[in-house]
Amino acid sequence: DVVMTQSPLSLPVTLGQPASISCRSGQGLVYSDGNIYLHWFQQRPGQSPRRLIYEVSKRDSGVPDRFSGSGSGTDFTLKISRVEAEDVGVYYCMQGTHWPITFGQGTRLEIK
Amino acid sequence: QVQLVQSGAEVKKPGASVKVSCKASGYTFTSHGISWVRQVSGQGLEWMGWVSAYTGFTNYAKNVQGRVTMTTDTSTSTTYMELKSLTSDDTAVYYCARMGLGDSGSCHWGQGTLVTVSS
Questions:
Q1: Of A94-103, B43-52, B97-106, where does mean pLDDT reach its minimum?
Q2: Mean pLDDT of B19-45
Q3: Do A18 and A83 contact (CB within 8 A), yes or no?
Q4: Distance from CA of residue B77 to its chain's centroid?
Q5: Cα A101 to the chain's mean position, in Å?
């Protein structure tokens, strides 16, 4: 199984400040079609998860442009340029390249 | 718009089975597979498996293989996840999600179904 390791697991951030979450995969994530199926999800308290970023860096429809994804190889990053109160929740990376699909442990973002 | 609507909360005794449904609307059902993901209270997301709505092909996670069955009913655009031999460790919120391997189509999740296993 591809292990997805996120850091940090807890992220206290001041409103308006940037935030960054790292995700490392245990092996490369290039699929047979040449794409990298590394996605980022946000789960707000009491809600179902919502995908923010797909294929490393593509923003889903309706996702604010303060969210961005980057990375290559086995190292990937989710960045929030200026944290807002509505960003509180848990963020997960997920690989959809190899069976079984696997998630990172989650990073809990809170406001300082 | 795409919607996945799941069945309601369940309470089961240890050793019993549970079957959770996920009814899709707003898209061509057979064009996308469905994953099932569970989440124990306060913990992370655990992928359980995937079923093709077109062929019925399944792929299950090792830790539930042998106890889980995922099926689809194309006549009602509904996907089912049945989990047998329940223990307290299976107490969790179960989500269906329109996502799979090598899939970057728009990703949609159901509202979740709480399954409680208690004697």
A1: B97-106
A2: 97
A3: yes
A4: 14
A5: 15
Check whether B104 has a pLDDT greater than 90: no
A40 touches chain B (CB under 8 A): no
Average pLDDT for B8-36:
97
DSSP state of B106: P
- In order, the DSSP letters of A9-29 are SEEEE-TTS-EEEEEEESS--
Q: What pLDDT sits at residue A89?
A: 98
**CB of B65 within 8 Å of any CB in chain A?**
no
User: What is the C-alpha separation between A7 and A108, in angstroms, rounded?
Assistant: 10
Contact A100 B62 (CB under 8 A): yes
Name the DSSP class of A50: E
Distance CA B31, CA B81 (A): 19
Say whether B45 and A92 touch across the interface (CB within 8 A). yes
Is B33 an interface residue toward A (CB < 8 Å)?
no
Residue B105 has a pLDDT of 87
CB-closest option in B44, B97, B104 to A92: B44
Cα–Cα distance for residue pair B85/B61, rounded to 1 Å: 16
Contact check, Cβ <8 Å, B110/A48:
yes
Q: In this complex, do A37 and B95 lie within 8 Å of one another by their Cβ atoms?
A: no
